[in-house]
Amino acid sequence: MQKALITALFSTLTLGSHAVSFSDDKPVKVTAALSTDDVAIYRAVLQKYVSKESANLNISLNTYPLKPDSPMSGLSAPDCLKGIQLQNLSTVSHSFHVLPADILPGPGMKLVDPKKQAKIVKSNDPSKTIGKNKSVGTAVEDAFASGLFSMSEIAFDKDHRFGVVSYSFWCGSLCGNGSTLVFEKVDGVWKNATRPCGGWVS
Predict the structure, then answer these.
(1) Fewer CB within 10 Å, N or C, the chain?
(2) What is the pTM of this model?
(3) What does DSSP assign to residue 27?
(4) Can you spell out the DSSP letters for 44-103?
(5) For residue 191, what are the CA distances in angstroms to 40, 105, 118, 152?
(6) How many Cβ atoms are within 10 Å of 148's Cβ, its own excluded?
(7) Whether the Cβ atoms of residue 43 and residue 106 lie closer than 8 Å to each other
């Protein structure tokens, strides 16, 4: 199952910057600027994923569609969206944004071209580099350093009280992880609602 999920993720990342999708549909590029809520949630995802602001992370310049029927989204989990009616799911499941630099919360993070970074990830895949003058530890360390972190479009409910977003970190054919997070706006601040939407690790 994990290998299938990684394969699915790899196939979406290598389609190019205008086709990061889990289906044959070509997503539409949204040219409107991200809202302040979008930016706040993306920053919150990154801050949750890394332990410190100085951490290095290669972040895909483009978001990918949030597909409710994808096995990687976790949106079908029984309690993931309990009591939440997402208003723009049909739109975000067929669109993507080009991310601005202001979503980056730390100096070690950078936006990268996903197609170019995918080639780097492939060349540093531990399954290929282990045994080629690289120890297991070095191979894994190099893979993590060149890994690609990607975030989906964000789906909101009508009142913008809840926002749902998926992320994935891909560092090789059997190297990666991902999850879906539900954020709740509390006193003007987006906080992780810790909903059980599942995740994957390989």
Answers:
(1) N
(2) 0.84
(3) P
(4) HHHHHHSSSTT--EEEESB-B---TT-TTT-TTSTTTSTT--BSSHHHHTTEE-BPPGGG
(5) 10, 15, 31, 17
(6) 24
(7) no
